[in-house]
Design goal:
The structure holds two protein chains of two kinds.
Chain A: E1 5-7, E2 10-13, E3 19-24, E4 31-37, E5 43-50, E6 65-69, E7 75-79, E8 88-95, E9 106-107, E10 111-115
Parallel strand pairs in A: 2-10
Antiparallel strand pairs in A: 1-3, 3-7, 4-5, 4-8, 6-7, 8-9, 8-10
Chain B: E1 3-5, E2 10-14, E3 19-21, E4 24-26, E5 32-39, E6 46-52, E7 60-61, E8 64-69, E9 74-79, E10 88-96, E11 103-104, E12 108-113
Parallel strand pairs in B: 2-12
Antiparallel strand pairs in B: 1-4, 3-9, 5-6, 5-10, 7-8, 8-9, 10-11, 10-12
Classes of the chains: A mainly beta, B mainly beta.
Chain lengths: ~120, ~110
């Protein structure tokens, strides 16, 4: 596609439910990132995929969070047993280079998750 | 661990005027990269400008320029001839030469007033 696409744009869920957030990166981009942006805060790194390498999961806040990237393209971020503190905007970005400094990261418009 | 600080939560500027957004960071590394990203109400992050730490010359992109002071670990963004479309959140970000991800500051909300 022309840009990074994220769905849904907004998601309201009840506490304790599982949610799945989807990211479609720019075609051909090998690197994919997930970030979380809480209200009034900066971007918190969650997870990074690069090609077929093992993902860098060092930013995942708890074992309720997981992510997959199928076929080196689409990625799904799953949050199990959602809590109110999970409410945030979840941003996905993709890049065509191994090292981001050689290019720029293109971001999607994010998914606003609200846990009630 | 690296940290990025933006001490101005909110700023405003009159249209056509110049405004400077501050950013400081903390690192023990010598080679790294710095970025300014803009996030308009649409939520989409847009790269404004980037600076490689090994380059002494300050980066410039049209109306946007930076004042990079490596010794002071300062990386401010100057927006000249401000336009209404510049209204957005601005994030300063740090990338280690060895790292794979960005460390972002908390952001500065800029309002350009007509």
């Amino acid at each position: 596609g022309a840009g990074v696409s994220q769905s849904p744009s907004n998601k309201v869920t009840e506490k304790g439910k599982d949610v799945e957030l989807r990211c479609d990166p720019i075609s051909g981009h090998t690197a994919l990132y997930w970030y979380r942006q809480s209200l009034g805060q900066g971007l918190e790194f969650l997870i990074y995929f690069q090609g077929n390498s093992a993902p860098d999961k060092s930013g995942l806040p708890s074992d309720r969070f997981s992510a997959e990237r199928t076929g080196g393209s689409v990625s799904t971020l799953t949050i199990q047993r959602t809590q109110q503190e999970d409410s945030a905007v979840y941003l996905c970005a993709s890049s065509s280079a191994v090292r981001l400094m050689n290019t720029e990261a293109f971001f999607g418009q994010g998914t606003r998750l609200t846990v009630v | 661990a690296q940290t990025v600080t933006q001490s101005q939560p909110e700023m405003s500027v009159q249209e056509a005027e110049t405004v400077t957004l501050s950013c400081t960071y903390d690192t023990s590394e010598n080679n790294y990269y710095l970025f300014w990203y803009k996030q308009p109400p649409s939520r989409q992050m847009i790269l404004v400008i980037r600076q490689e730490a090994y380059k002494q010359q300050n980066a410039t992109e049209n109306r946007f320029s930076v004042n990079f002071q490596k010794a002071a670990k300062s990386f401010s963004l100057k927006i000249s001839d401000s336009q209404l479309g510049d209204t957005a959140m601005y994030f300063c970000a740090f990338m280690s030469n060895y790292g794979q991800n960005f460390v972002f500051g908390p952001g500065t909300r800029l309002s350009v007033l007509p």
